[in-house]
Design a protein that fits this description.
Length: 237
């Protein structure tokens, strides 16, 4: 089991002023999560720094090899870089293996859905909640077949907050163009169930009984949800 998660943080120049606070030593103080600021070419910041103008749409593709050394990569996104991010993801989707987690600022659900369709693994909204950041990073590592998720004793809430559940629901609400009501409803329910079960197992370090209790479901019913979505508890232990 891994002792730490190494997370690259792409320092998109236009967003440096609101991404810098994430790199403060007190954001992830326990040492298990290590943030590594990188320029858009995948080299260490500030030596990899690029100018705000003239960005290439294939920077992520070119940085794919350098990003392989990290477990996950944070990518800040806002309205002024949304078009560039779409192109960068489209060009890199067949060569980049490192899970990309977006940090979105003032983006609507439709824009985020586009990015997810282009290969972004997950996203958080700015300003980032430290506890949510740790959970999402650990989830991305758990989802990778090559990496085992770490135990994090700091993440020990009995239940997810109502605000977190509301955010999960809002993530799924935007329907695809022409998507029928019944199909949209089935998709939303499926995605919500899968993420809800994943997060509770992560919070309770793979203990099915505790996760079921937090969900106010009996253990067998919770296990049936796990089987339905092919979720194994071992990844979270």
């Amino acid at each position: 089991m891994r002792a730490s998660i190494d997370c690259a943080v792409l320092m998109v120049p236009a967003h440096k002023h609101w991404v810098d606070p994430l790199l403060a030593p007190d954001v992830l103080p326990n040492g298990r999560f290590k943030l590594h600021p990188l320029g858009l070419d995948g080299t260490a910041w500030p030596s990899g720094r690029v100018r705000d103008t003239g960005w290439s749409a294939d920077v992520l593709r070119k940085a794919a090899l350098q990003l392989k050394r990290y477990d996950v990569c944070l990518l800040p996104i806002a309205l002024d870089t949304l078009a560039w991010t779409r192109l960068a993801l489209a060009n890199a989707r067949e060569v980049i293996d490192t899970p990309l987690v977006g940090i979105s600022r003032d983006l609507k659900a439709a824009g985020l859905q586009d990015l997810l369709a282009l290969g972004m693994a997950d996203f958080l909204r700015h300003p980032v909640c430290t506890e949510e950041l740790k959970i999402r990073l650990a989830q991305r590592v758990a989802a990778s077949p090559a990496v085992s998720v770490l135990n994090d004793s700091a993440v020990d809430r009995a239940r997810m907050s109502a605000a977190r559940i509301d955010q999960m629901v809002q993530t799924f609400l935007s329907p695809a163009a022409g998507e029928p009501f019944r199909a949209a409803k089935a998709r939303i329910v499926t995605e919500f169930e899968r993420q809800y079960v994943n997060e509770l197992l992560l919070l309770h370090q793979g203990n099915i009984s505790q996760a079921a209790k937090a969900a106010n479901k009996n253990r067998r019913a919770f296990w049936e949800l796990m089987r339905k979505h092919e979720i194994g508890a071992d990844l979270f232990r």
